[in-house]
Amino acid sequence: MYQIRLRALSTFLLLVPLALASDHGGVGSRAFVTGSWSLVQQGTTGVSAMQLVVVSETSAVILDKVEHNPLMVDGHIAWGAELNINTRTVRVLNPTSNTWCATGSFIGNGTLVSTGGNPIVITGANGLQAVRLFTPCSDETCDILEDPTRIRLTSPRWYPSSARLSDGSIIIIGGSMIGGFINNASVNNPTYEFFPPKNINGRCFNGLQIPMQFLQDTLNANQFPIVEQLPDDTLFIAANQQAMIFDWKTNTEVLRLPNIPNGVRVTSPFSAGSVLFPLTPENNYTPEVMICGGSTISDTQASNTISAETPASAQCSRMVLTAKGIAAGWSVETMPVPRIMTDLILLPDGRVLIVNGAQTGVAGFVIPGVEVLHEVGNSFADNPAFTPVIYDPSAAAGSRFSSGGIPASTIARMYHSTATLTPNGTIMLAGSNPNTDFTEMNSTIKYPTEYRLEFLSPPYMSQARPAYTGLPVTVDYGSVFRLSITLPSEAKNVSVVLMDFGFATHGVHMDQRSVKLVSELSPSKETITVTGPPTPALYSPGPAFLFVVANGIPSFGHRTIIGTGASPPVDEGAIANMLNKTSDPSAEASPSTWST
Ligand SMILES: *[C@@H]1O[C@H](CO)[C@@H](O)[C@H](O)[C@H]1NC(C)=O
Ligand SMILES: *[C@@H]1O[C@H](CO)[C@@H](O)[C@H](O)[C@H]1NC(C)=O
Ligand SMILES: *[C@@H]1O[C@H](CO)[C@@H](O)[C@H](O)[C@H]1NC(C)=O
Ligand SMILES: *[C@@H]1O[C@H](CO)[C@@H](O)[C@H](O)[C@H]1NC(C)=O
Ligand SMILES: *[C@@H]1O[C@H](CO)[C@@H](O)[C@H](O)[C@H]1NC(C)=O
Ligand SMILES: *[C@@H]1O[C@H](CO)[C@@H](O)[C@H](O)[C@H]1NC(C)=O
C-alpha cells in the first residue's frame, strides 16, 4: 500500500517539471496535479438553483423564480434558500419579490446585492426593479431585505448583468423591460445604472439610468451581457457577436473590439460561458478573456423555426486586452463538444473547468406563444453536455483541452443550471429547470426541475493539502501581512491566489476573478509574507477567498474582505432624485400573463 503511494508520488514529481516546462503562456507558476477526479451526488437545493453564489466559508445562497417548489416559507412557496456546503442541507430564505432572472454582485462592505427580476407573481411582489440586500451571517438568522420605497432600480430589468466596481459600488447593465424569449427593440432596456445611485455623468442622469449605445447595437441577443472589470478600471462588455471596452467613469465607449469570429453569438438565448484568465504579477496583470460556446443561429429568426436539435458552437475565442492583443484579434480553438449554457469556472491552480450545458438548441422553455422545433417537453435544448472539460490556458495551443480522468455526470444541467467553486476547492454543480413551473422528477418528463447537488473534486482534493492561519479580516491595497503555513513536504512552488467565485446565473459569472498576490516564503517555509492587491481596479473592494497554492495543490480558501470593508459611497442627492423620478412598481398589480 505504502509502496503504491510512493510510486504515485514519484510519478507526480516526474510530471511536475514537464508541466512547468510548458509554462510559456505567462500566466504564472504552474504545476498541476494529475490523476483522477471524483464526482459525488449529495444533498438537494430545496429551490431550483437558477442563481448560485457562495456567501461564506460554509454557505451559498440559491435563488430561483417564483414557482411551485414544495419548500414553503412563511405560509407560501419558497424561491430562496441558503445551502450549508458542509452538511449539504438548506434553510429557507424569504425574499419579497420575484428573483426570476435577476443578477447579483457583492458591494465593498460584503453585502450581496441582487437586482432585477420578473413581474409575474404567484405570490410575492413584482421584482423587475427590485434591489435585494443579503448580508452573510454565521448564525443562520440573516435573510434577504427589500424596501422598494427607498431602495429600487430606476427601470425594469429582467436578464441584466452586474459588476462590482473599483469604488465598491456596482453597475447594473441592460436587460429587458419584461420577460420573453429574446430581447427586441420594444422591450429593450439599453441603459445602465449604479447601486448605490451616483451622479457622475451629467445632471440629467443624477441617480438615474444612463443610455448605452452598445445595447442598441447588439439587439436582439444581448440579455445577460458578459462584463469583466479590467485592471485599468474600464469594463470589457460582450453581447451577441460584439464586444467593447467601456469607461463607466466618463460614460464613454473607449473602443469597439473585433466581433466574435465565425458569426458566433454569445449571449442569451445563445448563452456562452466566459472567463477572465488569472491576473498575475508574472503576466503584469494583463487581462485576457475567453468566451466558449454559444450558437450561430440567427437572432432574427422566428422561434418556431429554431430547432432544439441544432448543434451549438464548439468555439472558444480568447483575446488579450492590450493594444497589441486587440490588434492580433481573437484566437479561436475548438472544444471537444459543442456547448450552449455552459459554465466556465476558474480553479485555484489557474486552470478553467468547462462544465454543464447542452450540445444542441438554445436557452429557454415553452411559454405561451413561444415554441421551437423538436422541443423536449418544455426544453429548447437537448443532448446534455455531460462530460466536463479542463482547459489549461498556459499549455501550448492544441493541447489545452482535456477530459482525461474526469467522470461524466448523468444529470442534465441545461437551462437554469449553475456551477461554482467552493472554498475547499470542489466544484458544486446545481440546478437545471427548463420548465415554466416546478416539474416533478418522473418518467414522463425528460428534463424535470433538478434539485440534486453534485460535487466534483479535482485530483488536488485527494493530496496532502497546504494549510494556513492568520488571514486578516480585511486586507487593504498594498498592505503587508504574514500567514503561518503548513506545507506538504516537497512543496516548492508556493503562491497566494485571491479569488472571487462570482455570482452564477445563465452561464454568466458576475465578478468571477483570480488575482495572484506578491508573496515571499520564509526560509523555514513556516510563514509567508503577502502583499495585498496593488489597486482597487485589479480587485474591487469586497469579499475574496484566499488560497495558498503549493505545487498546484490549494489550501482551503479562507474568506476576507479586500479594502477596508467600508460601505460604498452614498450620494443622498442622487438617491433623492432617483426616488423623485421613479415609482415603485412592486406595489402595483402585476401582469400575471402566464398561467402558472
Ligand atoms: C516554480 O515555478 C517557476 C515559474 O513560475 C519555475 O521557474 C520554477 O522552476 C518552479 N520551481 C519548482 C521548484 O518547481
Ligand atoms: C418583443 O418582446 C416581447 C416580449 O418577449 C414580445 O411580447 C413582443 O411580441 C416582441 N416584439 C416583437 C416586435 O417581436
Ligand atoms: C409527472 O409529472 C407531471 C408534472 O409534474 C405530472 O403532471 C404527472 O402527473 C407526473 N406523472 C407521474 C406518473 O407521476
Ligand atoms: C476539505 O477537503 C479535504 C480533502 O482534501 C477534507 O479532508 C476536508 O474535510 C474538507 N474540509 C471541509 C471544511 O470541507
Ligand atoms: C453595505 O452598504 C449598503 C448600502 O449602503 C447598506 O445597505 C448595507 O447595510 C451595508 N452592509 C453592511 C454590512 O454594512
Ligand atoms: C419631485 O420633485 C418635485 C419638484 O421638487 C416635486 O414637486 C414633486 O412633488 C416630487 N415628486 C415626488 C414623487 O417626490
From TrEMBL:
Keywords: Signal. Residues 465-558 form the Galactose oxidase-like Early set domain. Transmembrane segments: none annotated. Residues 1-21 form the signal peptide. The keyword Signal applies. It comes from the Eukaryota. Residues 78-460 form the Glyoxal oxidase N-terminal domain. InterPro entries: Gal_Oxase/kelch_b-propeller, Gal_Oxidase_central_sf, Glyoxal_oxidase_N, GO-like_E_set, Ig-like_fold, Ig_E-set. The keyword Repeat does not apply. This is Copper radical oxidase.
